[in-house]
Amino acid sequence: MRLPKDIQDFLAGYPDTEDNLALSSNIEFYSNTRRCQPDDMLISEIHSQWFGDYETLERRHGFIQWLFPIREHGLNFLSQPLQKHEVAVLTADPTLRRRVLRSYKLMLDFYGMQLISPETGLIGRVAAPRNYSTRYHNLIRSPHNYLRISRILKCLAELGLEWLNAGFLLHVLSEQSESNELNTAGIIHSMDHWWSNCIRNAEERAYIGDAIRKVRAGNLGFTRKMYVRALERRRHSGSFHHQGAST
Prior knowledge:
Distance between the termini: 22 Å
Helix content: 55-70%
Largest sheet: 2 strands, antiparallel
Structural class: mainly alpha
Order of helices and strands: HHHHHHHEEHHHHHH
Strand content: under 5%
Radius of gyration: 18 Å
Oligomer: single chain
Number of helices: 13
């Protein structure tokens, strides 16, 4: 299967883009010194005021390019594509990395999920009193979020947090396979063609792709237990694969 052009560019590290040292809007935003446009919000304000504000997160669209910058132009022309020199700063500064992680948690909550372990990327459904089912339903009926998720996964990979991507993808796969949640044609298409390829680590991308193909073919029931075990295996051995291990 031929990969979409944006995925090919992402996996190749965007070889045709140049680094403009004069552009640093993403560093300034994550440093809490620049307000994103058109919402005129600091990153600290978005994190504190918009967490759990599902109507705002659904209705507004320009903020996502600021929370998750990538080296592609988005639909918000008031944002700036991520620059290579910005990647170095955003990955090296612990405070900025924590803010990126907090942005990820904000969007996971919006999708009815929560990050249980930042170390492994393990995700679970949001806990009561939040209603994961309502949030899952919103994700199903609001397909513009599928593009958002592609952006989120690409950004995490760019900013040194790529191990989180497998946690997200395998969570969704276990929900689809074991509980028939998030198991719609739209989500499956986005997951199989885009999301599952937003991982530059070739071994992890192959493992996840293989698990997805087996589930789609009816040859594998990917359970929550298998999901947790896979992430723990990677944490201990550095790989999803080790001698004698199955998917």
